[in-house]
Specification:
Layout lengths: L8 H26 L12 H10 L5 H11 L7 E2 L5 H6 L10 H15 L1 E7 L10 H7 L4 E6 L3 E9 L2 E17 L3 E12 L2 E11 L5 E10 L7 E5 L1 E4 L2 E3 L3 H24 L3 E5 L22 E5 L4 H22 L5 E2 L4 H4 L6 E2 L1 H23 L8 E2 L9 H14 L5 H10 L9 H10 L12
Antiparallel strand pairs: 1-16, 2-3, 2-9, 4-5, 5-6, 6-7, 7-8, 10-11, 12-13, 14-15
Helix pairs in contact: 1-7, 3-5, 3-8, 5-10, 7-8, 8-11, 11-12
Protein name: DUF4055 domain-containing protein
InterPro entries: DUF4055 (IPR025129)
Length: 462
């Protein structure tokens, strides 16, 4: 029998993808902690050998870097607040989550989660009132006001919905939370709790030490309350939507390729470890003890006697290296595909502009997040009696006509933030035909060093 903590089937189906993404975003340490889940132990490989291979494996952070670079593009310029945003709601955008983050920083973090996990959400919450707070004036004196809460995809346990006036509307939403409680006179511990939201009311459930007939711990209502809103104050933001409240990560194939790289790179490191140590080969030296060293000599009587070090030819090493480079290039292209403008993805506004033929996937995600923030601001306004919450504009003037151009822009951004060298950028541009193949990096580097400092642009005075 299910309880309030039991995830729905749709949530359970997404758990495997979320676990993989969490490991990739967590870096080398998280991938090592995952153990055999993403680094299989090969047949006849001993436990000690596998443990040594796992401890020395390092992650090429292609997925995390791509998410970071792509999510930063819409927020390379500040969010523009519309003139229709009420004055006090505008003031709240300076600390939108009551944790010191501005709306711009909050939205950038939201984009990270959407690109990585495929979905996130904005919960518009309101602090619990003390008994002495009864009027609007009391609320303002106490500093009570609505705020945004960032809900990750993994926090959602389940939902129920129905059509209201033709619109699919949430009627129940269950969110998993972590609460910190006192543990003894000085300590503290984290426990799970489930927040259940309904239209007009909410509940917080916590696990007890009591068990039911099946031996499972019983969950009970710990807190409850009511709200004045006529809907559940939750706005989903989708990366690659598959249905109402469901989505898949837009970079999921890149995530799988990154795991392939993790496994292949581990194999390559093992080959290098073996190949770097030559094997001593001895032939027809008799049964006498052999001492190998700088001050020793080996005596042999047989005409076919031989002794030498045997080294790896290196062909497998080179093949593995080229395979890794090819995989890294495919991962870059997978990330760059979100920047390629595709005909047909045209909005009503873009139809009015002759120079806009479509939008890329990242622009669509930024547009969806913009709409979600508008809806969340409207919820804030409704909570305090304002007629409208206003609108914001997120920067969306990016995108590339071709995959080659998009991947080059992604590489340039990686060079700027220090995750790619200038030489690699030069050679990648050369490979794409942007730079003449006759140019040499060393010569170009010398010419760059000889560049005269260009004068600054003149400042025009009124």
């Amino acid at each position: 029998m299910s309880n309030v903590r039991t995830p729905t089937a749709a949530v359970a189906d997404a758990a495997e993808d979320l676990a993989l993404i969490a490991a990739l975003m967590g870096g080398t340490r998280a991938m090592r902690a995952a153990g055999k889940a993403y680094l299989p132990q090969w047949p006849n490989e001993s436990d000690d050998a596998f443990d040594a291979r796992l401890r020395t494996a390092t992650l090429f952070p292609a997925f995390a870097r791509t998410v970071e670079v792509l999510a930063a593009k819409p927020f390379s310029r500040p969010i523009t607040l519309g003139d229709d945003i009420p004055a006090r709601v505008r003031d709240w955008t300076e600390d939108i989550d009551l944790q010191g983050r501005s709306l711009h920083s909050y939205a950038a973090s939201l984009a990270d989660a959407v690109l990585a996990e495929g979905m996130a959400g904005i919960l518009v919450d309101y602090p619990t009132k003390d008994k002495g707070v009864k009027t609007v004036a009391d609320e303002r004196r106490a500093g009570l006001r609505p705020y945004f809460v960032h809900i990750r995809k993994g926090d959602i346990l389940g939902w129920r919905s129905k059509r209201v006036r033709g619109v699919e509307t949430l009627t129940q939403l269950r969110l998993l939370e972590q609460a910190t409680i006192d543990d003894g006179p000085f300590g503290e511990k984290a426990i799970e709790q489930v927040r259940v939201l309904y239209i007009g009311k909410w509940e917080v459930w916590r696990e007890t030490e009591q068990v039911d007939a099946e031996g499972k711990k019983i969950w009970v209502i710990y807190q409850s309350g009511t709200t004045t809103l006529k809907r559940i104050p939750f706005i989903p933001v989708y990366g690659k939507r598959t249905g109402f409240m469901t989505a898949v990560p837009p970079l999921m194939e890149l995530a799988h390729s990154n795991v392939e790289h993790w496994q292949s790179k581990s194999d390559q490191q093992t080959i290098l470890h073996v190949a770097r140590v030559p094997i001593l080969f001895a032939k027809n030296l008799g049964d006498a003890q052999i001492v190998v060293g700088a001050s020793t000599a080996i005596k042999a009587d047989g005409p076919d006697a031989d002794m030498k070090f045997v080294e790896h030819t290196g062909k497998a090493i080179e093949a593995g290296r080229l395979s890794l480079l090819d995989l890294e290039d495919r991962m870059r292209q997978a990330g760059a595909e979100l920047l390629v403008i595709k005909p047909g993805n045209v909005t009503e506004v873009q139809t009015l502009a002759d120079n806009e033929q479509g939008m890329c996937a990242l622009q669509r995600i930024a547009h969806d997040e913009e709409d979600a923030i508008d809806a969340a601001l409207q919820l804030m306004a409704e909570w305090v009696g304002e007629t409208q919450g206003g609108h914001v504009t997120i920067y969306k003037e990016f995108g590339a006509a071709t995959l080659a151009q998009a991947s080059l822009e992604l590489l340039r951004d990686m060079t700027i933030d220090g995750t790619l060298s200038d030489e690699t950028l030069f050679r990648e541009a050369q490979r794409r035909g942007v730079i003449s193949p006759e140019l040499d990096w060393n010569g170009e580097k010398d010419r760059i060093a000889k560049n005269l400092k260009r004068p600054a642009a003149p400042v025009l005075q009124d």
